[in-house]
Amino acid sequence: MDKFVIEGGVPLKGEIRISGSKNAALPLMAAALLADGKTTLRNIPALHDILTFNNVMRVTGARVEFEAASETLTIDPENIYYPEAPYELVRKMRASFYMLGALLGRGGYARVSLPGGCAWGPRPVDLHLEGMKAFGANIRLEEGYVVAELPEKANGLSGGQYKLSPSSVGATVNLLLATVKGTATAVIENAAKEPDVVQLCHFLTQMGANIDGIGTSTLRIQGVSSLKGVTFDNAPDRIETGTFMILAAMHPESQLTLTNTAPDDLGFFTDWFRKTGAEITIEGSSIHLKAPQTIQPVSVITEIYPGFPTDLQAQWATLMTQAEGESHVTDTIYPDRFSYVPELARLGANIKVRNNTAVIKGKTPLSGTSIMSTDLRASVSLVMAAMCASGRSEVLRVYHLDRGYARLEEKLNQAGARITRVNGDVEEA
Ligand SMILES: CC(=O)N[C@H]1[C@@H](OP(=O)(O)OP(=O)(O)OC[C@H]2O[C@@H](n3ccc(=O)[nH]c3=O)[C@H](O)[C@@H]2O)O[C@H](CO)[C@@H](O)[C@@H]1O
Ligand SMILES: C=C(OP(=O)(O)O)C(=O)O
User: For a pLDDT cut of 70, what percent of the chain falls above it?
Assistant: First the structure.
């Protein structure tokens, strides 16, 4: 397992180009399996999760070619013959569960292992299954696998209405995939409005789907008989953008420009960010950032889009260890997503968890030591803390990070960071 060795205390200067979004790309990839022809997706980052999903699709017989240098992915689903997603791959990544909707939508049958992904407490898939049932699929559990199929003699789902409670990105994606082809009308209420879902709807529409209410919480899908393969540009990663914005605020001398961003996809995040005292100027797809001399404490509560994203709360709590005063970071979406807290405390942060809230008292100096990543966003927050700490730190198990950040150390080093990737697991055994 690789680790990072980080020399802390240096500001970030210059430009960093934001990669394509992981969480927006994965639904597109699954949707490409519904087409009658080949789909080309551009701005697809060479991340472990993307490579894993490529392999998940290949198991079915789909032809998948990824050119990492040009970040271009082609998916040809013509020869799909094996509508299954095995445990060995699905356990690595929760979004593999999108295969359930895609394969059901394509051929009326899917057998998909129950998912893995970042683990921070319960992450049920009941809404995915209940929604598919409500739209007429037969669902059964079989030795850790979910089998979804059309009822005997039916030649499509029956459609209907289903209200997600709570709203769910993954369930909205799966229900869209399951229903865009066919003859029925399906209405998803309290659907997710995250940019990743909106992009998926636009992509499906370009393929020939009929979806009303895109960008609202009620999606009305009228099934169509076929979908065609298209060429499509994936959106920039809003979570990578937010992560680097937060990082740029952590050192008083940092001045950073992020290019290839989609500022509108950040929702209200920029408002919270400004309250810290950081300066932000948006110019087309570039975001210019200047760190505050003194970071103001800003409490946040995670909410569905456009509220504060749960995927940025660990990074925010890390920033708040350097703010002058007390702040609270509350996660209402994943109440247990605080595994990074003991590690920040080991670096010297004054941070404690009360129920679903991290209570942070700043400003505390951080000093370098060995720290362990536990999930994707937790691990990037530890890298950020190590970059802010005095002396040298080691961040172990960076494989979590490689799931979702493309060439992180290379990008940050180009802006002045001092991060070395060390291969192997001898020290961690
Ligand atoms: C690959 C991907 O895009 N992952 C993102 C996606 O995850 P994911 O799609 O898994 O997250 P959801 O939007 O589904 O989860 C939202 C809430 O709904 C609950 N829920 C969800 C499904 C279900 O069947 N039952 C249920 O109760 C969850 O426990 C959670 O409390 O959105 C999350 C919330 O923005 C992000 O943190 C993840 O990074
Ligand atoms: C948690 C994430 O991914 P997943 O839902 O695949 O675990 C994430 O992208 O932050």
Answer: 98
Closest residue CA from atom 24 of ligand 1: 125
Asked which of 169, 202, 225 is the last residue of a domain, the reply is 225
Last-in-domain residue among 198, 225, 252: 225
Ligand 2 pocket check for 404: Cβ under 6 Å? yes
The answer to whether residue 312 sits within a structural domain is yes
Tell whether 26 and 11 lie within a shared domain.
Answer: no
Same domain, 217 and 340: no
DSSP letters for 312-370:
GHHHHHHHHTTBSEEEEEE-SSSTT--TTHHHHHHHT-EEEEETTEEEEEE----B--E
To which H or E segment does residue 172 belong?
helix 169-179
Q: Which residues pair with 3 in a beta bridge?
A: 422
Same-domain check for residues 257 and 292: yes
Please indicate, yes or no, whether residues 263 and 302 belong to a single structural domain of this protein.
yes
Print the domain residue range for 245. Answer: 3-18+236-422
* Prediction ipTM score: 0.99
> Which ligand does the CA of 164 lie closest to?
1
Do residues 37 and 177 both lie within one domain? yes
Residue 1 confidence (pLDDT): 84
Output the pLDDT for position 331: 98
Which residues are bridge partners to 76 per DSSP? 63
Tokens matching residue 77: 């689903």
Q: What is the pLDDT of residues 371-403, one digit of tens each?
A: 997 899 999 999 999 999 999 999 998 989 999
**Would you say residue 428 lies in a domain?**
no
Residue 39, classed as helix, strand or coil, is: strand
Instruction: For the full predicted model, state whether its pTM sits above 0.90.
Output: yes
Digit-coded pLDDT (tens) for 406-429: 999 999 999 999 999 998 755 443
Q: What is the pLDDT of residues 174-223, one digit of tens each?
A: 999 999 999 999 999 999 999 999 999 999 999 999 999 999 999 999 99
> Does 50 contact ligand 1 (Cβ within 6 A)?
no
Residue 311 CB less than 6 A away from ligand 2: yes
For 127: left if phi > 0, alpha if psi spans -120 to 50, otherwise beta; the answer is alpha
Count of beta carbons in the 10 Å neighbourhood of residue 166:
11
Q: Which residues are catalytic?
A: 118
CA 117 / ligand 2 centre spacing (Å): 6
Centroid of ligand 1 to alpha carbon of 169 (angstroms): 6
Decide whether any atom of ligand 2 lies within 6 Å of the 118 Cβ.
yes
**Residue 76 among known ligand-binding residues:** no
Instruction: Please check whether residues 197 and 74 belong to one and the same domain.
Output: yes
